[in-house]
Design goal:
α6 crosses α7 (181-189) and α8 (211-219) runs parallel beside α9 (238-253). The protein has 2 domains: 2-34, no CATH class; 78-274, Glycoside hydrolase/deacetylase (TIM Barrel, Alpha-Beta Barrel), CATH 3.20.20. 39% of the residues are buried. Strands 1, 2, 3, 6 and 7 form a 5-stranded parallel beta sheet that branches. The chain is globular. 41% of the residues lie in helices and 9% in strands. By secondary structure, the protein is of the alpha/beta class. β4 (171-172), α7 (181-189) and β5 form a beta-alpha-beta unit. The protein has 11 helices and 7 strands. The structure holds zinc ion. Residues 84-85, 135, 139, 175, 234, 292 line the site of zinc ion.
Length: 292
């Protein structure tokens, strides 16, 4: 055969080549059958189940509610003032006095370790009808924290607030407004609604804005449902205190009631929820970003 193979050219050579190729392909196919089918790509769809087979398990899509940034309901003339980073013995009492003068109620997102240092201030905030909410224990950004560390901060802060006021906090604002899906999941698992602020209503008091500018940024473009970011701690807040009287005056002139975030959520959820049920998810417009 070898002699024939080499000595005969043309047609005989091609016949032999085709025969050999056919044999190789056939052997390969047999080997493939022995091993079972091999998917060409990892992205191949799974084989469909045979008749009577149970349907494949469906994994739930882990979607957490986005942070609340506004709670608008047509006809409501409500605005929520929020104060972060306290309590602070220099500024929190002055802010409480101003709120009381205007029969206004605000939400205080306190830092756990500050609240621990000033328990009487926490009680005073609650006793005046304001809402206490969680802003973390150490004011560390949650963005790069492990889920376990987040949980420790939130549980420790919530327990302290509950111990001091007798009420379990319902709201959490992550420090610096920074969050990720894990923050939303951990907070939600602990029964905390994540609240930021309405875009355009961070008056930058944390950055030293003058009182006139704080008033302007707080009070312009108010339509009802806004959550306004202010600070009663974390630095020199004299400008915030100076601005607050004018802010409350202007909101009163515009016939806006200044209420806590939870009250705004409850009223937006309807009369049934307002009668005592917990806050319902609000229609968020967008997420805030940037500051504290
Ligand atoms: Zn803060």
């Amino acid at each position: 055969m070898k002699t024939v193979f080499f000595s005969t050219g043309g047609r005989a050579w091609w016949k032999l080549l085709l025969a050999c190729t056919g044999a190789v392909v056939a052997l390969a196919a047999l080997g493939s059958l022995a091993r079972g089918p091999v998917p060409e790509r990892a992205t191949l769809a799974p084989a469909s189940p045979g008749p009577g087979a149970p349907p494949p398990p469906r994994l739930p899509a882990p979607r957490q509610a986005p942070p609340v940034v506004t709670v608008a309901r047509p006809g409501d003339h409500l605005v929520a003032l929020t104060f972060d980073d306290g309590p602070d013995p220099r500024f929190t009492p002055q802010i409480l006095a101003l709120l009381g003068r205007y029969r206004a109620h605000a939400t205080f997102f306190v830092i756990g370790k500050e609240a621990e240092q000033h328990p009487d201030l926490v009680r005073a905030v609650a006793a005046a009808g304001n809402e206490l909410a969680v802003h973390g224990w150490s004011h560390t950004s949650f963005q790069r924290m492990s889920a376990a560390a987040m949980e420790r901060e939130l549980v420790q802060s919530s327990r302290l607030i509950q111990r001091l006021t007798g009420r379990r906090p319902r709201l959490f604002r992550p420090p610096y407004g920074r969050f990720n899906p894990t923050v939303l999941r951990v907070a939600s698992g602990l029964g905390l609604t994540v609240v930021l602020w309405t875009p355009g209503h961070d008056p930058f008091d944390w950055a030293g804005a003058l009182p006139g500018l704080i008033v302007q940024r707080c009070c312009s473009r108010i339509q009802g449902g806004e959550i306004i970011l202010l600070h009663d701690g974390g630095g020199d807040r004299r400008n915030t205190v100076r601005a607050l009287g004018t802010i409350l005056e202007r909101l009163r002139a515009g016939h806006y009631d200044v209420v806590t975030v939870s009250e705004m959520l409850a009223r937006a959820a309807g009369p049934e929820a307002g009668a005592g049920a917990g806050p319902a998810p609000a229609p968020p417009r967008a997420t805030g970003s940037g500051s504290r």
